[in-house]
C-alpha cells in the first residue's frame, strides 16, 4: 500500500466519520480519505474517484433504503469493494449484506483497532466479518437477486425517485424536492417500472422493501 490509496467514507454522522477516518489512517497511514454524508455524495465521490480502493458505507444512510445503497454502489462501481458499517450486528443482517456483494461488515461497536484490522484485511483482498455466518442459510432469494441487478441499472436520478416513492411521496412532492417538473418525475417513474419489471409504483415500492434491514426476512413477509 502507498500514498495512492483512496478510501471513501460514507456516513451521515460526523463523529463516526472522524472515527472511521482515524481507523483508516491506522490501517493505511498515507491514504487519501474522501468523506460523504449522503448516498448521493458517496456516488458522486465514487464517480470522481473510480480508482478508489474501498468504500466504507453506513447501512442506514438518510437517502437510501436499507441495502439499496450497497446494491446501487456495487452495481455502479463493481470494481470498488464496499464494507458495510452498522450498529446492527444481527447475523441475518450480516449474511444478507454479504449476499448483496459487501466485502466485509464492521459493527459500529468495534474498537478503532478492530476497525483498522478489518480495513487492512479487505484491502489485502480478504473478507472480514465480526462473527461466523457460514452456518446461516443464504438470505437473498433469486427474486431479490434479480431485483438487485435491476436496481443497479437505474440512473442516479431514477434511484433517488425510487427512494422517495418508498417514503410515500407523490409525484408532485418528488418534483418539488428535486426541483424538476412533475412530467419529468412521471417519465422517471415509467422508466423505473420498466427497468424493475413491475407494472405499478406500488409493486416497485413492495419490491424495494426487500432491501429493508430492520427485521429478519420472515418478519417482513
- Silhouette: globular
Structural class label: alpha/beta
Helix content: 40-55%
**Mean of residue pLDDT values:** 88
Major sheet: arrangement of strands: 2-1-3-4-5
Q: What amount of the residues lies in strands?
A: 5-15%
Calculate Rg over CA atoms: 17 Å
Tally of individual helices: 11
CATH hierarchy, class of the largest domain: Alpha Beta
Question: What can you see in these coordinates?
Answer:
- The chain has 221 residues and is of the alpha/beta class.
- The chain folds into two domains: 6-123, Rossmann fold, CATH 3.40.50; 142-220, Arc Repressor Mutant, subunit A (Orthogonal Bundle), CATH 1.10.10.
- The protein is built from eleven helices and five strands.
- Strands 2-1-3-4-5 form a five-stranded parallel sheet, sandwiched between helices.
- Mean pLDDT is 88; it is low at 215-221.
What are the SSEs and their pairings?
Blueprint: E1 6-10, H1 14-27, E2 32-36, H2 39-48, E3 54-58, H3 68-76, E4 82-86, H4 91-99, E5 104-107, H5 112-123, H6 142-151, H7 156-166, H8 171-178, H9 182-196, H10 201-208, H11 217-220
Parallel strand pairs: 1-2, 1-3, 3-4, 4-5
Helix pairs in contact: 1-5, 7-9, 7-10, 8-9
